[in-house]
Amino acid sequence: MINVEEREGSAEPSPERPFLSIENLFVSFNTEDGVVRAIDGVSLSLERGRTLAVVGESGSGKSVTAQAIMGLVRSMGGHVSGEIWLDGQELNGLQPEEVQALRGSEMAMIFQDPMSSLHPFYRVGDQIVEAILAHRKIGKAAARKETLEMLKHVGIPAAERRIDAYPHQLSGGMRQRVMIGMALINSPQLLIADEPTTALDVTVQAQILELISTLKEEFGTTVILITHDLGIVADVADDVAVMYGGRLVEVGQTSTIYEAPEMPYTLGLLSSIPRMDRELPKRLDPIRGNPPSPINLPPGCVFQPRCNYSDRVANGACLSVRPELLPTAPGHLVRCHLPAEERQQISADVRRILAGAQR
Amino acid sequence: MAGYIVRRTLGMVVLLVLLTLAVFVLFSLMPADPARLTCGKACSPQIIENNRHRLELDIPPVEQYQRFVSGIFFGRTYLADTKRPLECEAPCLGYSFLRNQEVLDLITKAAPVTFWLAIGGFVTWMTVGLVFGIVAALKRGRWQDRTVMGIALVGYSLPSFFIGLVLYFFVILFLHLLPNPQWKAGMPFKDLGGFVQTMLLPWITIATLNAAFYMRLTRNQVLEVFGEDYVRTARAKGLKERTVVVKHALRAGLTPIVTAAGLDLAYLLGGAIITENIFNLPGLGSLAIGSVIASDLPLISGITLIAATLIIVANLVVDLLYAVVDPRVRVG
Amino acid sequence: MPRSNAWLRRALVFGTTFALVLAACGGSTTPSPTTTVTQGPGDTPAPTEEVDHSGGTIYMLTAAEEFDDIDPQRAYTGEDLAFFGATIMRSLTSFIYDPDAGVANTLQGDLATDTGTASPDATSWSFTLRDGLTWEDGSELTCEDVKYGVSRTFANDVIVNGPTYAVQYLDIPSNPITDENDPKSGFLSAYYGPYDGTGQADFDKAVSCDGKTITFKLNQPVADFNYTVTLGFSPVPDPTGHPDLEDTVEQYTLRPWSNGPYKIDEYTQGNGGHLILVRNDAWDPASDPIRKAYPDVWQVDFGIDAKVMDQRLIASEGDDAFAIQYGSIQPENLSTIFTDPETPNADFAGRATSDFDPFARYYWIDTNKVSNEKHRQAMAVALDRDAIRANLGGDYAGALGDGVIKPNLGDQYAETGMWTDLFGQAVPDTGDPEFAKQLIADSGEPMPALTWDYPQTAVRDQEAAILVASFGLAGITVTPNPIPPGQYYGIVFDDEAAHEFGWAGWGPDWPNASTVIGPLFTDKGGWNLSRVHDEDFVQGVQDALAELNHAAQAKMWQDLNKLAMERVYVIPTTFGLSQTFGGTKVQPLYQWAPYGSWPYAEMYVTP
Question: Which of A335, B270, C88, C246 is most buried, by CB atoms within 10 Å?
Answer without folding.
Answer: C88
